[in-house]
Amino acid sequence: MSLSNAELYRLKSDARRGLLENDLILQRFFDRYAADLNAEDGQVLKQLLALDDNDLMDLLIGRKDELSVLKEISFSPAYQKVMMRLREK
To answer: How far apart are alpha carbons 21 and 62 in whole angstroms?
Structure first.
């Protein structure tokens, strides 16, 4: 099941960050994959977007592969898929 327009809008709004680098990566991700996101992807993104800017940046650029706060989801297929897509150049 794909995300509703309201859910997608909320995620895009939450994706506006204090670090320009995060903004650029997240904007590229939504430009490429917004139409393909499902509810599970939305939940992963919601948890990622709740992180502090610096923690999120560490994940996005691969400086860290996981954070303790995301331990529960970090091995799920949805998390792995979203992270792979976020890290694409």
So the answer is: 13
